[in-house]
Amino acid sequence: MPNPILRFDIGCENRDVTEAFYTDVFGWRFDDNGPYSRAIVGGAEGGAEGSITALGHEPHQYVMIYVKVEDVAESIASVAKNGGEALLGPLPLPTGGHFAWFRDPGGNMIGLTDV
Length: 115
What we know:
Layout (H helix, E strand, L loop, with lengths): L4 E7 L3 H12 L2 E4 L4 E5 L7 E5 L8 E7 L3 H10 L3 E8 L5 E6 L5 E5 L2
Parallel strand pairs: 1-4, 5-8
Antiparallel strand pairs: 1-5, 2-3, 3-4, 6-7, 7-8
């Protein structure tokens, strides 16, 4: 079975402004999800989870989808073997598990996670 898209992040420089925009446009609500991110709550049942993230450094503006994999280290090694570029990680998540970012051969940034 193909690996599913598990979650997404919307990066921003000003989380308050970005959250207000998505609340006004889509009715999204938010809950604390760590020091740099707030989780989108009340989304569609069975849909991908999402967060608004302000890293405090570049990249500020981005949309990142995360593909669920069994082993982040193994998958990021496969990315490199197949023409992609590992950008970040694998790194531990505060809630357990790991994540990594890579760039595909076309230049798109994609995330990997095992949780």
